[in-house]
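ok trying again, last paste got cut off:
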Amino acid sequence: MTRLSVNINKIATIRNARGGNVPDVTLAAQRCEAFGAQGITVHPRPDERHIRYADVREIRPLITTEFNIEGNPTVQSFVDLVLEVVPDQVTLVPDGHNAITSNAGWDTIAHKDLLTDLCRTFRNKGIRTSIFIDPDPRMAYGAAECGANRVELYTADYAEQYSKGREAAIARYVEAAKAAREAGLGLNAGHDLSLENLAWFIQTIPWTDEVSIGHALISDALYMGLEKTIQAYLGEIRKK
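nice, full thing came through this time. structure:
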């Protein structure tokens, strides 16, 4: 069964826009877990424009479900934070410092040496490592050669193309997912997945281990409430 990890960055964005501690991101993480989320994802960036490093430290001991920290490992402070907090999973994302959000996956061939060193470093701490990639079989095979445990497919293109034809939108993802499975990797997916497009992705690639969803889920929660929204996403995952 595919697991739902809720990315709570957008909750921190709202807090930071006003200052203070409303909404409380640590409480939000606990509520997401209580409402059925099987994982909590955070993506701290160096400028701390949403999740802060201090948030990561505070959240870690408060949740019992899977904790996933994603971010750019070329920033040493990020690597140090992951090694200090020791999450269940770290997702390596090559996002630029000025990027509004993640916008591309790793070239696991061109950056093999860097990613291999990182995978070894995190594996030695008992942390499962996932590499964020575009839907390209070569990148999946490359991630396996780097020593990753999983890959996370960057699903922005799938989400953008979904309304134009879902079969065509998912075709490249199926090929990349098959390559990941053949290479012995676990499979995650994330970016712009929503109540509209989630079920088809899971139905077509049922060996997906985990989806990480933030922007759409938190936006839906403004209308539906957090508990009902998480249950709605879990319902989409369970559709046959």
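cool. Residues 60 and 85 are 7 Å apart (CA to CA). The mean pLDDT is 96.
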